[in-house]
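[retry 2/3] Transcriptional regulator: previous attempt timed out, resubmitting with same input.
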Amino acid sequence: MADFLRRRREALRPEDVALPPGARRRTQGLRREEVASLAVMSTDYYTRLEQRRGPQPSVQMLASLTRALRLTADERDYLYRIAGHHAPASLSAAPHVAPALLRVLDRLDDSPALILGDLAETLVQNTMATALFGDASRYTGLARSGVYRWFTDPAERAHYPEADWDRQSRAQVASLRASYGLRGPRSRADVLVRTLRRTSTEFAELWDWHEVAQRFADRKTLIHPELGAIEVDCQALFTEDQSQTLLVLTAAPGTEGHEKLRMLAALGLNRFTRAAERQGLPDGSTA
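[retry 2/3] Transcriptional regulator: success.
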């Protein structure tokens, strides 16, 4: 595993992950500290992995390394196996993120951006998206789906003005029906639908309307606990098979929303720095 990590790190160029090339680089490929930063782990922990001194990394750590090193699906599966874990199933809770979307996300440091699976599961998010929506990596099981949380967790709706809840509910259900059409019965989408029909009267009524839609563009108002209402434009970029979406939130220059996004960037950077410091524990575990 140590040799594999080192070889993959040396094969990457700074521009592959939106880093400046630097005037004097003595290291071939990326530096260890750069990979550690991309994976949101301490440099010491990553260094010990490459030097065969580290503990067996957890599945969560392997998922972070997969994204940081831009591994293909085959390389990801190989890393999991040599680290002593089963390779993720194709429809597991931590699917392989499309490298093309990751390359775009790497270059978005001034706008909230996140990559979603077709069941509204956040696969990866930048620091501004985390500052706006919170860390979605803490959810497990069906709660990883934003659709599930929307209809079962009242806290999920705190991100939107109450006047927008009905519109958001219809949009969530219409998007899920589009995913259900792609996946079909006996899929994870089917499990999600059957569970929500049992637990949410609102969902069951909207599901029976048979509305189908995937939004490519939208304008919405989001609520931040410190900055208040932020009006943003949403743009979505889909992979060819419609299984993943890059969602980017922007605001026109000179608007109040644009100014609040600038403030959000500062908040996100501060929280990211504090999180990285907390995650620099000897065992490499996340806080």
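[retry 2/3] Transcriptional regulator: The two ends are 25 Å apart (CA to CA).
[retry 2/3] clearing retry counter.
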